[in-house]
Amino acid sequence: MGIxxxxxxxxxxxxxxxxxxxxxVVEIATSQAVVMAETEAPLNHPATPDNDVxxxxxxxxxxxxxxxxLCELHKTRTQTVFGTGSHHADWxxxxxxxxxxxxxxxxxxxxxxxQLLNAMxxxxxxxxxxxxxxxxxxxxxxxxxxxESEVRCCSSYLQRQIQLLQPKIILILGSTAAxxxxxxxxxxxxxxxxxxxxxxxxxxxIVSYHPAYLLSSPLEKRxxxxxxxxxxxxxxxxx
Length: 239
What we know:
Elements: H1 3-9, H2 11-20, H3 58-66, E1 84-85, E2 91-95, H4 100-105, H5 111-123, E3 132-135, H6 148-165, E4 169-173, H7 175-182, H8 188-191, E5 196-198, E6 201-208, H9 211-216, H10 221-237
Parallel strand pairs: 2-3, 2-4, 4-6
Antiparallel strand pairs: 1-3, 5-6
Helix pairs in contact: 2-5
């Protein structure tokens, strides 16, 4: 099923997401500021999986992440942000590096951005507990640019989460997360509307806007809705 079919059938849900989801006071997450150069070239240093990490179960993986000191981010974090939700979820949602509120609460997508994500999920007849939510990085960068070496340090953790969860669809939210996880410098605008795959997983990967961006650019909510329907169509069709 294509986007047009889903849009026609779900216009009321889309209007609820577009019109009813924005809080009166907009809190913009300033940690989502890293934008890489526009190019089709991959990142210079592709991540190398840690074979030890790739053998861990959920509990052991969460412990390993909590104790991680592979990069400088461990020195300034309050706690790691591992992930929340169902271990049997069809949907895996991946955000960017934790911002300061996420670092404080230990959970991805909190505050105004989290409220908007909840509205996005409701428009798909989903709740937070129906999906699994994590970040591409597990430690807060304290609003500074993230380095490629820091991305590499976390890559095995995310890969193992994907292997353990075995979702049916992966939705990456935000240009920074998309570029880090897909190992590309391509802009979000050129990554949207396409199905991506990891070399270690056949699960379709869809890219869309981060909720923090939608709070500051509400006119893009309609495009975000199209991305959500595109992801849902991939899940339904099994492509």
